[in-house]
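SEQUENCE-TO-STRUCTURE ENTRY
===========================

Backbone structure tokens: a row of integers, each naming the local backbone shape at its residue.

Task: work out the structure tokens from the sequence, keeping to the layout shown below.
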Amino acid sequence: MKRDLSKIQDQNQVWDVVIIGGGATGLGCGLEAASRGHKTLLLEQSDFAKGTSSRSTKLIHGGVRYLKQGNISLVREALHERGLLVQNAPHLVHRLGLVMPHYKWWEVPFYAIGLKVYDFLAGKLNLGPSKHLSREDTIKHLPTIESDGLKGGTLFYDGQFDDARLAMSLARTMAGQGGVPLNYMKVNGVLKANHQVAGVTAEDLETGLVHKIQAKVVVNATGIFTDTIRHLDNPEAPHLLSVSQGIHVVLDKSFLPGDSALMIPNTDDGRVLFAIPWHDRVLVGTTDTPVDQASLEPKALGEEVVFLLSHVGRYLTKQPQPTDVMSVFAGLRPLVSGSKEGSQKTAGLSREHSLFVSDSGLLTITGGKWTTYRNMGNDTINRAETLGKLPQHNSTTEKLHLKGWTKQSGSFNGLSIYGADAESIQQLAILDPELGQPLHPRLPYLKSEVVWAVRKEMARTVEDVLSRRTRALLLDARASIEAASEVAWLMAIELHQDEAWQRQQIKAFTQLAQRYLLSV
């Protein structure tokens, strides 16, 4: 997959579908449209999954809390999509056991019954039956759980994934289906003909050149920036979104050894809290803090960090301190809460995602979550085909294997997340043994992965590599800063950049990474 701008040079070309936004929603729409044979272009203002879609809790799940709320249809939909993802991307999505510890006797039957309903709703795509655990078995699954007053636990299964890697797989699968995904292309205007949306103007942030791009349908799939794009179409459009921030802290594996995750179903603020094994670290999250403004780089608040550390510390034998935090990151959720009246024609497809069509024909998809990205894309492109008078095709993505699919991913050790592509990365190290060396002693990555990210995954900056092609920034912010110069050097060779570019990249990444460190 190359960043080939020649495909948008012809201003007379009319695309069937232009999608704005390269997160989970936009990529799901892009793959859906391209796989149906539509001429599809996706434009992302930064890097793929730069925003919310690389900052999740790393779970592909049905949503136990929605079951508690009685939203059966939503849970059933998400569990179905969870099962499909395990089949279509086994190198990226796998089963994870989650344990809810019980310190009150009434919790045992209460959660056991609820999770049996969860199992039932998953049907044939269930990942494993839930079951009650004795006090001893609960400690075996969670060796560092606070045992004082522990009555037992409940074990159930959901899916775990690497969000940014799944986004990259979607982009490459889309490209393989004939679609064109482009990063660092910022949409700054909407073209109209006879008062109807007819395309967009987009600036290449690397060169400053502005491109006029014609389209039969324009899809706004920009998540937290949904209202920004809607206001390009109509400055008077009412706001649809409220934005909520959730943060995660990353701890050493010693805080929760083993392969099972800890789930606390009801914290002081009414949310679910997770402590999850991920890439040989422990990921703890999340919070729910209203914020006033959308940002590509939200910053964790001190009180949010204190909340997570204190809450998870109640359930662990060792209380994590701020000095134990290896990285902290924040993500923003797009929550639909604005007016649906006036000039907006709406079609709410579920409580999780909604479609809106403006009077001028801008199609907006917003809300939702990673687990249901495919269904969101399906609903959106069904509507786009009608709106743009495109040939109507049935979706094929239910059984479409994503890039890297293989039944043998577990045999590639540290490169297993690349699936079938792992062999090609190994070949790079064979041809140049230096590329087979570790990128940094505290990070689980090889230098060959940097080269692969540039050649095959459209990585353009040091941040792209250390934050999303690898997850170094999230796993160990200090180590990622130390690795930045090596990454810049390797990338400069591939991108034919000079030392000035390397210095600029190192400086920019270091400033960014400082935001992922706690001031203690």
About this structure: Residues 9 and 211 are 7 Å apart (CA to CA). The domain at 5-52+165-240+338-399 is CATH 3.50.50.60 (FAD/NAD(P)-binding domain). Confidence is low (pLDDT under 50) at residues 339-350. The radius of gyration is 23 Å.
